[in-house]
Amino acid sequence: MKEVRDFLCKQAEGDLLPWRHQAFAATHFGLSIGQVERLALEAGLLPSRYQRNRNMLTVAQQLRIFCGHVAVIGCGGLGGYVIEQLARLGVGRITAVDPDVFEEHNLNRQLYSSLAMLGQPKVEAARKRVAEINPAVTVIAHKCAYSKTNSGDILQDVDVVVDALDNIAVRLDLADTSAELNAPLVHGAIGGWYGQVSTQFPGENTLRKIYSRAVNAKGVESGLGNPSFTPAVIASLEVAEVCKILIGQGKTLNNRKIHINLFDMEMIELQY
Fold this sequence. Notes:
Blueprint: H1 2-11, E1 16-17, H2 19-29, H3 33-42, E2 46-47, H4 59-66, E3 69-73, H5 77-89, E4 93-97, H6 122-133, E5 138-142, H7 151-154, E6 160-163, H8 168-180, E7 185-191, E8 194-200, H9 206-210, H10 221-224, H11 229-247, E9 256-261, E10 266-271
Parallel strand pairs: 1-2, 3-4, 3-6, 4-5, 6-7
Antiparallel strand pairs: 7-8, 8-9, 9-10
Helix pairs in contact: 1-2, 2-3, 3-4, 5-6, 5-11
């Protein structure tokens, strides 16, 4: 791969690698865009698409993000925004899990929904969208519902799991399985004007504490509904947690939860 690295270094503009040279290298050397991206980052070059990351992330940290594998369980209101932001951040592998197709009631808030996409699988929409915005990212699409039965296949080699579900019992199963697989879980939930975010690391029991009185209940989304903006806010906070976990820096929300009230513009922190 030395030949490829030498080529990339010659084409770089300072420490930035423009897209046209990244794409040419992939074609010329018979590599994927992702393989070229990794080689560039390993050589200390930053693909130009990430240049606005550079004041908060080093090239070494961008490489850690690219080498990360994040599973997003649920590709609806929360999950669509999470996947979009992970791909733009530069996470190299994203596993997307959702059994559903787009329906008309999804149009008010789900990022990948459109009239043309009605009846189409949500995970396929996510895969196609990521290919358009960042072809260096690999999306592994599972059109199925997450369960303990299939968790071993779905969550194989995952570094971080993102909870974008709307069912409390299933998300508690997901929290337990993530702990068994030694993977941190970033939790997000939404309903109306409100949302919450927390992070559970292996050995912790935060989600069971949060939902100790509502183990068998459905999420509040079914009663409060969701506008267009709440999923975007909570998804952004979840992705910020994922970023900090992947680079190993920053203060995460483990053993605590933040509750966001967008109606009164209040944020409350609770310890667990």
